[in-house]
Design brief:
Blueprint: H1 4-22, H2 24-38, H3 45-58, H4 62-74, H5 79-93, H6 95-112
Helix pairs in contact: 1-2, 1-4, 3-4, 3-5, 3-6, 4-6, 5-6
């Protein structure tokens, strides 16, 4: 059974597919932007996913938290790296970011198959 964050991350990916069906040229351009922004250059892809996660937390985006936590986990991010990312997002996003930051830790635990505190 998929957990809450797995389901949410899957819904984000599915939603992108729905948009692609309705507006293929827009999503083609968005995809090109995504590839360019996440390419392994001065910053590695894992670092960029952690940055995206911090932004998702700070702007209070549930889907972003799930999607980018899963991507960071798949790229080898550790729980400690996610926790540091949450701390930075808290610094930038204030109290509301704490709620989303806690969700990022829960999401990481789900993707890692752990219940660590």
């Amino acid at each position: 059974m998929a957990g809450k964050f797995t389901q949410l991350a899957d819904e984000v990916a599915s939603g992108i597919g729905l948009i692609r069906e309705g507006s293929p040229e827009s999503m083609k351009a968005f995809g090109a932007l995504s590839l360019a922004a996440t390419a392994d250059k001065s910053l590695d892809p894992k670092t960029k996913e952690l940055m995206a996660l911090a932004i998702g937390i700070a702007v209070h985006c549930d889907g972003c938290v799930a999607y980018h936590t899963r991507a960071a986990h798949k790229l080898g991010a550790t729980r400690e790296e996610v926790a540091e990312t949450v701390a930075l997002a808290l610094y930038m996003g204030g109290g509301p970011a704490a709620v989303y930051g806690a969700d990022a830790i829960r999401a990481y635990n789900e993707f890692a198959g752990t219940t660590a505190v």
